[in-house]
Amino acid sequence: MLMFSRLLVVLAIVTCFEAYGDGPIACCEENQQGCDLHGLQVKAKKEIQAQIMLGKMYWQGKGVKQNDAQAYDWFKKAANQGSLEAMYYLGQLCEEGRGVYPESLKLKAVRWYKKAADKGHKKSYQRMKYLETHFPEEF
């Protein structure tokens, strides 16, 4: 039975790669069930997009057990390398109080949004302004 389940996993990964072509990142974006998690983790050592993909997977619990702390860590790795998308996701996690300690989460969220907004990320700017307007006592 174990051999049969391993075969199914291998077939899912091969099918996924045939369908999506661009390796672990594209495969996992489109089909978390057939995701080559190990291949994606290897790519994440060097590639920002793989780090973001792992962050999304852990945040949403798709293809892995849902884990906000893991999502935060992967997004932070990508954000520290300059990813505006990762900075935005960190802002969202902080705003929602997920994956981080509760000390002044909205302030932490605004800091991440501001980093991305300063480089032209429009969604981050909108969220930053929303928080500053609706929760002025926290800033």
Q: Can you walk through the features of this model?
A:
It is a single chain. With 139 residues, the protein is mainly α. Helix content is 71%, strand content 0%. The chain has eight helices and no strands. The longest helix has 19 residues, at 2-20. The protein is globular. It starts with a helix and ends in a 5-residue tail after the last helix.
Short précis:
The chain is mainly α and 139 residues long. It is built from eight helices and no strands.
Overall outline: globular
Structural class: mainly alpha
CATH class division of the largest domain: Mainly Alpha
Distance linking N and C termini: 58 Å
Helix content: over 70%
Under CATH, the topology of the largest domain can be stated as Serine Threonine Protein Phosphatase 5, Tetratricopeptide repeat
Q: Figure out the total of helices.
A: 8
Per DSSP E runs of 2 or more residues, the count of β-strands stands at 0
Low-confidence stretches: 2-22
Mean pLDDT: 79
Q: Report the sheet-strand fraction.
A: under 5%
CATH homologous superfamily annotation of the largest domain: Tetratricopeptide repeat domain
Secondary-structure element order, as H and E? HHHHHHHH
How many domain units?
Answer: 2
CA radius of gyration: 17 Å
Largest sheet: none
Task: Output the keywords.
139 residues; mainly alpha; Serine Threonine Protein Phosphatase 5, Tetratricopeptide repeat; 8 helices; globular; disordered N terminus
Fold topology:
Blueprint: H1 2-20, H2 24-30, H3 37-44, H4 48-60, H5 68-79, H6 84-96, H7 105-117, H8 122-134
